[in-house]
């Protein structure tokens, strides 16, 4: 897997073989960042980080910071090794925790962009906005990747501005209703 754009473009990302790991394909990543536009100087919260490729793409494209939350210790060890090898220690934080516990640790914090790629068809998509509200975590935009077979039910206070389908994956772009 390669980083598709920015200062880290072309770097190869070694991803451990972990059951259930489903890194976001290059086509979907490129589409996502084309839709988002510039991410320069933005802060990213990467939930269900897995391979870390979304945080790395954002940092490569100029994001000021990224915080990845992943519960699998093998994956977070790999992410930490990449962070050191690629000299991203100041810009990229990595936490080993379930998303629920990770969000509790971040209570009250604000991010420009939150990206979440939870395990498909397990109900996390519907719950994520509620967890953000519960912990007072702010964001300008929330993007959730989910199976195209799932029609999420968004909680009150959130609106889905658009959804884009790419094969079996759909990207949902949400924001809070003012």
From TrEMBL:
- Residue ranges the record marks as coiled coil: none
List the transmembrane segments: none
Instruction: Name the domain of life.
Output: Bacteria
One example GO MF annotation: 16S rRNA (guanine(966)-N(2))-methyltransferase activity
Annotated keywords:
Methyltransferase, Transferase
E.C. no: 2.1.1.171
Pfam families xrefs? Cons_hypoth95
Write down what this protein is called: 16S rRNA (Guanine966-N2)-methyltransferase
């Amino acid at each position: 897997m390669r980083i598709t754009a920015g200062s880290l473009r072309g770097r190869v990302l070694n991803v451990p073989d972990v059951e259930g790991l489903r890194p976001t394909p290059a086509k979907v990543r490129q589409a996502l960042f084309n839709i988002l536009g510039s991410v320069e100087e933005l802060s990213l919260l990467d939930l269900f980080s897995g391979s870390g490729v979304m945080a790395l793409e954002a940092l490569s494209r100029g994001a000021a910071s990224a915080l990845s939350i992943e519960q699998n210790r093998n994956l977070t060890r790999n992410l930490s090794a990449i962070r050191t090898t690629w000299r991203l220690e100041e810009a990229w934080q990595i936490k080993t925790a379930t998303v629920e516990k990770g969000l509790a640790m971040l209570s009250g914090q604000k991010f420009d962009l939150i990206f979440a790629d939870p395990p498909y068809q397990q109900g996390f998509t519907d719950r994520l906005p509620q967890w953000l509200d519960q912990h007072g975590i702010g964001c300008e935009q929330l993007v959730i990747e989910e199976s195209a077979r799932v029609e999420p039910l968004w909680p009150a206070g959130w609106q889905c501005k658009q959804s884009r389908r790419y094969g079996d994956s759909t990207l949902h772009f949400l924001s809070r209703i003012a």
